[in-house]
From TrEMBL:
Annotated AB hydrolase-1 domain residues: 21-256
InterPro entries: AB_hydrolase_1 (IPR000073), AB_hydrolase_fold (IPR029058)
Top-rank lineage group of the source organism: Bacteria
The species this protein was found in: Nocardioides cremeus
The protein's name in its UniProt record: Alpha/beta hydrolase
GO molecular function terms attached to this record: hydrolase activity
Length: 271
């Protein structure tokens, strides 16, 4: 089975236009881009995919060892880029997928020309001189809770991750999305995500990169977004007037506008 089929890839927009590939974060699927991706269909070839274990992906291709690290997920994105023969592509990654699309850019620099990182974090654990947002004990507790009662963990964590308590329907949607994942797949993905450290990778990502940071994010605080943008050789930071970890749902207009401005600047440089 091709990567396109395995990851339920959908393609819309202008077939001959520059491609944009949108990749969702943990516990989500491509449906999470429904308020943002369509805005680019008039000017781009828009590609959506589901990471392994999410949405319409084919779990028969799941391999415990392959997906014990984030590299396995990044390899899937890279294979989709190759199978579709994408060129001069802009990859948009939300949350953990911000690091995944960076890995793909390093693997295929001739195919991937720019990145958009939405609420990224290369390292979730605080260390001397670095603020990740969590103590090591916090991560241990989070992962233990997920492993012992995934549905309960989802019901408690999803609304907190989403933020925007005045829009409870958004938290409910994320809870439902979390609950659709196989608990064991989710546990391994969460472990790979929250114990990862990809800080050393950032200075090697030379492609123009937009970092979108929310003003109040319990998963990726402002200090993390600032760090990512500073470490990227061609990084730029845009602070969104949005709260929570999923501005593609809670602040889609601001998210779309920021990406549009960034993509337009790339066109200016090219021409």
């Amino acid at each position: 089975m091709s990567a396109v089929s395995r990851h339920a890839v959908s393609v819309s927009g202008r077939p001959e236009a520059p491609p944009m590939l949108f990749v969702h974060g943990f516990g989500c699927d491509q449906h999470m881009w429904r308020y943002v991706a369509p805005a680019f269909e008039a000017s781009h070839r828009v590609v959506l995919m589901d990471l392994m274990g999410a949405g319409g992906s084919d779990l028969s291709g799941y391999d415990e060892q392959r997906y014990s690290t984030l590299e396995g997920y990044a390899d899937d994105i890279t294979q989709v880029v190759r199978d579709l023969d994408l060129r001069d592509a802009v990859l948009v990654g939300h949350s953990v997928s911000a690091m995944l699309v960076a890995m793909t850019q390093l693997a295929e620099p001739e195919r991937v020309s720019a990145l958009v990182m939405v609420a990224p974090s290369p390292r979730y654990v605080d260390e001397p001189g670095y603020t990740g947002g969590f103590a090591e004990d916090d991560i241990d507790e989070l992962l233990d809770s997920l492993a012992s009662n995934y549905l309960g963990w989802s019901s408690a964590m999803a609304p907190a991750i989403m933020g925007n308590a005045d829009w409870p329907e958004l938290g409910a949607e994320l809870t439902e999305s979390f609950c659709r994942m196989d608990p064991e797949v989710a546990r391994r993905f969460a472990n790979a995500t929250f114990r990862s450290d990809h800080r050393e990778m950032l200075p090697r990502v030379e492609a123009p990169t937009l970092v979108l940071q929310c003003s109040n994010d319990v998963i990726a605080p402002v200090a993390v977004g600032e760090y990512v943008a500073e470490q990227l050789p061609a990084g730029s930071l845009v602070m969104l007037e949005a709260t929570g970890h999923c501005p593609n749902l809670s602040a889609p207009d601001a998210t779309t506008q920021a990406i549009t401005t960034f993509v337009s600047s790339l066109d200016t440089v090219t021409t």
